Amino acid sequence: MEKRGEGLNKRNKGFSLVELIIVITIMVILAAVIGMAIIRYINKARKQVDVETAETIYKAAELAMASTDEEVQQAWEQNTGRTKYTVTANGETYEMEIIAWARGSFNYDNRNGEFKHGWDGLDSQWPWVLELKANLIQLGGKSFNTPYEVLPFKYRKTKDPYGRVTQYADSWMIFRRVADDKNKKGDDYAVEVWIGYKRNTADGYGTNTVLPFYRLYPDTDKRFYDD
Known about the structure:
By secondary structure, this protein is of the alpha+beta class. It has one domain (about 30-225). About 35% of the residues lie in helices and about 20% in strands. The protein has helices at about 5-10, 15-65, 70-75, 125-140, 225; strands at about 85-90, 90-105, 115, 170-180, 190-200, 210-215. Strand 1 (about 85-90) and strand 2 form a beta hairpin. Helix 2 crosses helix 4 (about 125-140).
């Protein structure tokens, strides 16, 4: 005869080892999936902050372009005669040239945190760049020549979509579009804000030392969010 409670004890003996392993495995998988979703959400939020910073830079650049100061206008409109970059953003391919750049990361001890003109030896671009910086102080509350002069990236792991370098993007870049001679789109001198990599070489600003990755403003390159 079965003793009282003996059957109940057999039925309530708990998880077997196999069942326990299955439960733990499911919990680990769920934690990994949730963790990856949280990371993606955080990264997307950081990228959005970078786009908003790019918009501020863009607005400062447009104000500088609209300056009534003749010296500033001439600095913007002059032909640099330097390298033109062929880029693609949101399915459109076109040419542009670098006008100014600044570090977007702290990897360089805050050096070059201020925007500088795009090409060595073209000091005539400085009036426009100085106007740009003055506008940034008004729009973004950024005081240059301080330990906080850098406009930092919030997302710091943007890779080169063309595989030219393994380094992450480290610089803001202001480019001027070059009119498409073939299609005559009339977008000459339109300003764009990109992020990319600026090589630290002893050769100055020679060909291919400025590598644009993604256009952040206007019309943010959709690939930026997928990076």
